[in-house]
Design brief:
There is one protein chain. By secondary structure, this protein is an alpha+beta fold. It has 2 domains: 115 residues, 2-Layer Sandwich (D-amino Acid Aminotransferase, Chain A, domain 1); 151 residues, D-amino Acid Aminotransferase, Chain A, domain 2, CATH 3.20.10. 24% of the residues lie in helices and 27% in strands. The strands form 2 sheets. Strands 6, 7, 8, 9, 10, 11, 12, 13 and 14 form a 9-stranded mixed sheet that branches. Strands 2-1-5-4-3 form a 5-stranded antiparallel sheet. Helix 4 links the parallel strand 6 and strand 7. The longest helix is centred in the first third of the chain and has 15 residues. The protein starts with a strand and ends in a 6-residue tail after the last helix.
């Protein structure tokens, strides 16, 4: 039976009766954040990195999530223990408020957790040599919101719509307003040159992904620390020794083709992927 559960503020709800309050600010203004979580044996191995980004949202967006974070461990223990593997979408809203942009003085957060089966392309984290296109729609620049996974995703929607239902591309590279490589529509991007790993700077726009921060943390103790680069030209990727992408569901995945350009594959990236996959006990 397919996994399909929905929780509202920690309580399991009947999805056929589920109605979002029209006054909820997530519905009106995208006033909130979300996280996409990979469940493994009743737990979320990457939770510390998700929590880190939620705390950044608390700081930047003034979202009072302390109560939610305090309740979360008990919720996980009570509701996820029987789930061997799955995908969970967590949405946190500032909650219901009066008409207008001004947030309520004392917000009462609403949060939803939707749990489903893992997408087919991320079931076992094996390498599948991704093919990327280059999106024409640029990322908006907003340094205050940079790094966060807030609910305003129109840039990604517009970019993803460029290749519609075509199957020849797995992802699309997104450029900033100056034409520099920033990220992909739903993943971060990296390249390898002379065994050195690089990734674009995200201080002005983009989502600071959990696997990206895992890589920065794990490579920090090696001679080849991950280098964050500003103003990355597309040629840096096309001439790289290897390119790879990452997110919490697919893990670390090699890229074999960018807009018709063949990209070399690398055993070093496969090693990084294997190290990341160890937390899921996968070979």
């Amino acid at each position: 039976m397919a996994l399909d559960l929905l929780f509202l503020n920690g309580e399991l709800v009947d999805q056929s009766d589920q109605v979002i309050d029209f006054q909820d600010r997530a519905f009106h203004y995208g006033d909130g954040v979300f996280e996409t979580l990979r469940i493994h044996r009743g737990d979320i191995p990457m939770w510390d990195f998700h929590r880190e980004r939620l705390l950044l949202a608390q700081e930047k967006l003034k979202l009072p999530i302390d109560k939610f974070l305090a309740q979360w461990p008990r919720f996980i223990a009570e509701n996820l223990k029987a789930i061997e593997s799955g995908c969970a979408k967590l949405i946190i809203s500032r909650g219901v408020g009066p008409r207008g942009y001004k947030p309520p003085d004392v917000p009462a957060l609403n949060w939803w957790l939707k749990i489903t089966d893992l997408p087919e392309d991320s079931l076992n984290l094996v390498q599948s040599n991704k093919k990327l296109t280059i999106c024409q729609h640029p990322l908006s620049r907003q340094p205050v919101l940079a790094g966060l996974k807030h609910l305003n995703r129109l840039d990604q929607i517009m970019a993803r719509s460029e290749w519609g239902s075509q199957n020849e591309f797995d992802e699309g590279i997104m450029l900033d307003i100056d034409g520099a490589v920033t990220e992909c529509t739903m993943s971060n991007i990296f390249w390898l040159r002379k065994k050195q790993v690089y990734t674009p700077d995200l201080s002005l726009e983009g989502v600071d992904g959990c696997v990206r921060r895992w890589l920065i943390h794990n490579l920090a103790s090696t001679p080849k620390t991950l280098q964050v680069v500003k103003s990355v030209k597309l040629e840096c990727l096309l001439s790289a020794d290897a390119v790879f992408i990452s997110n919490s569901l697919i893990g670390i995945q090699l890229v074999s083709n960018i807009a018709g350009h063949q990209i070399p594959l690398s055993d070093l990236v496969k090693t990084l992927s294997d190290e990341f996959n160890q937390q899921y006990f996968l070979d």
